[in-house]
Amino acid sequence: MSAREQFKPLLEDKSYLRHFWHPVCTLAEFERANPSGHGPMGVTLLGEKLVLARLNGKIVAAPDRCAHRSAQLSIGTIAKCGGQDTLQCPYHGWQYGSDGACKSIPACPDKPVPPRAKLAIYDCEVKYEIVWVRLDNSYDCTEIPFLDDWDNPDMQVIVADSYIWNTVAERRWENFTDFSHFAFVHPGTLYDPFFASHPLVLVNRVDGELQFELSPPREMEGIPEEAPMGDFIYRCTMPYSINLEIKLWRDGSRFILWTTACPIDDKTCRNFMVIIRERDGQPDHMHLAFQKRVLAEDQPIIESQWPAEVSAGEISVATDKVSIQYRKWHRELSLAAPNGKQTFREALRTNVIDDTAG
């Protein structure tokens, strides 16, 4: 195999990702970004610079570029025009409303606003105290990912600050669902290295999710008490979200570890984590500290993978079944998207049931 073939990206066209909802910041991060609590705030999604601003009570997302002379709106301010909130450009004071239209040009108060003086407005919603953006809603067949027990009053919720890794979102997803690395990257933290092998699992596609289950060996020794070890049930919403429900061995309670990644660009991803657990009397910082310990073990390994993009020439074995199916689905979505809404919807929503663990 030539070097060119070995390092050929598995996903040569990633424009299909524009049809999905992606997290861009937590609500707390947005509100901290500006003393007003309403923005503006600059973020990057799929290589595009965006501005977020809360206008008239709702967060809107638009290109971070004034239509006049291309200044970044994210270093502007929230202002008023005609009693309505506007996003004001820092350069010449042009003001944009929640519909994206320019409402005021201070240098020409008596002249009509040019019809083209308008920003594109992207789908933007707040869910799970996270701000989500969808760049292309023309297919309208994607939803904000599943997160179990978010509204359950019997559960305690932690929404962690996001963190950035120098890798692509696909590799971060695979890291979180890769069973075989536990014995080597997390010995004594999450795993007993004596149990380096593990059984194959059934991997199903169900309504836009990749679903599978795993039960690590109960005989493992040397695992710290704070490690959330138990029987694992994964519900992974395409393209990057993972809802891991753990039935803890120590007391039978339920523990949800949820993560997702934002593809900032072709080399970087912003990662999010929510922890939901039955009330255990422990302070939140204990759970956060343990997860940060695990992430600190993972990060240098994942950032060492090169090239950053998943390569078609990488060798897979039987125990890579989850990532094999994940990569296969991404490739199908990439190839389906250019062929229209129905083809893309079928690639995303058609269920595929695995009838053998081999």
Q: Ranges with pLDDT <50 over ≥5 residues?
A: none
Q: Major beta sheet, specifics?
A: 8 strands, antiparallel
- CA(first)-CA(last) distance: 28 Å
What is the architecture of the largest domain at the second tier of CATH? Alpha-Beta Complex
Rg, alpha carbons? 22 Å
| Count of extended strands | 18
In CATH, the topology of the largest domain is named: Naphthalene 1,2-dioxygenase Alpha Subunit, Chain A, domain 1
Strand content range: 25-35%
Mean pLDDT value: 95
Silhouette: globular
Bin the helical content.
10-25%
Helix and strand composition category? alpha+beta
Word description of this protein:
With 358 residues, the chain is α+β, with helices and mostly antiparallel strands. The chain folds into two domains: 21-134, Rieske Iron-sulfur Protein, CATH 2.102.10; 155-349, Naphthalene 1,2-dioxygenase Alpha Subunit, Chain A, domain 1 (Alpha-Beta Complex), CATH 3.90.380. The chain is 19% helix and 28% strand. The protein contains seven helices and 18 strands. It has helices at residues 3-6, 27-32, 169-177, 182-185, 284-304, 321-336, 341-349, and strands at 21-26, 41-45, 48-55, 58-63, 77-81, 84-88, 95-96, 102-104, 123-127, 130-134, 155-159, 163-165, 204-206, 209-214, 230-237, 242-248, 254-263, 269-278. The strands form four sheets. Strands 11, 12, 13, 14, 15, 16, 17 and 18 form an eight-stranded antiparallel sheet that branches. Helix 6 (321-336) runs antiparallel to helix 7 (341-349). It starts with a helix and ends in a 9-residue tail after the last helix. The relative contact order is 0.16.
